[in-house]
Every structure is written in C-alpha cells, then in structure tokens.
Specification:
By secondary structure, the chain is α+β, with helices and mostly antiparallel strands. The chain contains ten helices and eight strands.
Length: about 280
C-alpha cells in the first residue's frame, strides 16, 4: 500500500467517560477522528445532531463547532497535516487552528458513518496504541497504519453512500441483493446457487432472462463500476482498490478492468486527472 498521507499524530488514545452532562461547545482546531466501540452519545456538529453508537466513525475538521453529551467509549485520533511539532497536546487545550489540508478526502468522508470493516479499524487503533506515545511519530509502522485507516475510511464512505437497496422479492432478487452486499468478498457460482436455493444451470438461465447477463458477469460489472469510482475520486493505491473490489490478486483486477473498459486502471485514473 502506498503512503499517500503523511500526517503527524498529535494524540491517540482510548477514551471512556460515563459523564452525561453536556460538554461545552468548542471549536475544532485539528483533524479529529473517533471510532466508537461502545457509545451512547449525542454529538452536535455545526448545528447538526448525530447519534453516536457502536461502530460509528466520526470525522471533524478545523473550524467546526462541536458539542457532545452522553456515554463515550471510543478510540480517538488527532492528526496534523501542517508539520507542526506540538508537545503535551490535548484537543481541549489547542490554541492555534491547523491550516486546512487540501485533499479530496474531506469531500468524501462524511461527518459520521458506519464503516463495514469494524475489526480492521479496531485492530489499527490497537496497533497504534501499542506504540510508545513518545516515539509514535518516529516509528516506521505509524504512517503505514494511518494510511491504512484513511484508505479504509475513504472506501467505506463511498460504499456507505450507495442508495438503499429494495428488499428482495424472489430468488433472483435475493442473488442480486447478496452480490451487492458481498461483492468485496470472494463469491462463487455455488454460493449464489445456495443463496437462491436453485440449481446452478437453472440460476444462470433465470438470471440471464431477467438481466441479459450471467450472475458472474453481473458481479464483475458491479465491481468494475465501483473500481472506476474509487480510481476517479480517491488516491487509493490500485492494489488497495483491487482488494476493495474483491480481487486479492491485482493482476486479475487489471485483467477484468482492461477487458471491461479497454484500458488499464492506471490509464483510466490518468485520464480522469486530465479531465479535472
């Protein structure tokens, strides 16, 4: 995975509080990220109210106004993209606002969303916390972990922004629903036949009658459309995008992308930059 982002960690901690008294409104000075592992909290951010519960990922940027109340059990990460060197930092004592970091990710990441990789987020935070606080910005593992977290957050934010799917009404709808929910995983025709409770050959005939293509072709199309979105709207490494689209071998991803769009993932990304 390429190291696209290179911020310094100002603070990384596991924060808990049972205090339900509302906190005072404060101005966000830096880039703050919270990952909830057991919250029952209300957050008011720039006048909008959010319910924060287990699994929520919260992103706050410099200049926002925040106020919270309720039980908090979360991992907290505060990042600095402006190369300042601050000692004894806490969110509530910062006195100078960080300069805005010019990146597309702030237009992609919502204030609050629920990512689909809960265990990966928890693992990343635990690994960051295992590094000595005084040495965290000098440790070679730190930028790798921070980049992995930001890559996952961007991909999950794009995934969570998809329109809600209608509840399946028959076996073929059930297969479509399953593909849309699990296309980032390895999916075989046997698995889809099991989901539909149909014979594989009969499933293929029914699916083609409904959609004009086979279930496998439908899966590939869905993956390729999602890949184009990630290539155009993020700086994620192609290897990471391949994995997000269900291809753990990038060569297979490159093969299907070129077969579908008659160009490589890299050339498509470059063409999007020109069009910008």
């Amino acid at each position: 995975m390429g190291l696209i982002y290179n911020p310094r960690i100002l603070q990384c901690m596991h924060f808990k509080t049972d205090t339900i008294t509302p906190a005072a409104t404060r101005t966000v000075m830096d880039y703050e990220m919270d990952f909830s592992v057991g919250c029952d909290r209300i957050m008011e951010l720039d006048g909008r109210e959010y319910k924060i519960e287990k699994g929520c990922f919260v992103v706050r940027t410099p200049g926002q106004k925040v106020r919270t109340k309720g039980v908090y059990d979360c991992y907290m990460l505060t990042l600095d993209f402006s190369n300042r060197h601050l000692s004894h930092y806490t969110r509530n004592t910062a006195t100078k606002m960080q300069e805005i970091y010019d990146s597309k990710i702030w237009g992609i990441l919502p204030d609050v969303f629920k990512p689909s990789h809960f265990s990966d987020y928890e693992r990343i935070f635990k690994e960051l916390l295992s590094i000595n606080e005084l040495d965290i910005n000098e440790n070679e593992k730190t930028p790798v972990l921070v980049n992995e977290l930001l890559h996952l957050a961007v991909a999950d934010a794009l995934f969570s922004s998809r329109p809600a799917m209608k509840k399946p009404t028959d076996s073929i709808d059930e297969v479509c629903f399953y593909i849309k929910e699990h296309y980032m995983e390895e999916i075989s025709l046997d698995t889809l036949a099991s989901v539909a409770h149909l014979n594989k050959n009969y499933l293929i005939r029914r699916f083609k009658k409904n959609f004009g293509i086979s279930p496998v072709a439908y899966l590939i199309k869905l993956r390729m459309d999602y890949a184009k979105k990630l290539l155009a709207e993020t700086n994620l490494p192609i290897k990471t995008i391949a994995a997000q689209c269900g291809y753990h071998d990038p060569s297979f991803f490159n093969f299907y992308f070129k077969k579908t769009f008659c160009e490589t993932p890299m050339s498509y990304r470059e063409s999007q930059k020109v069009n910008d």
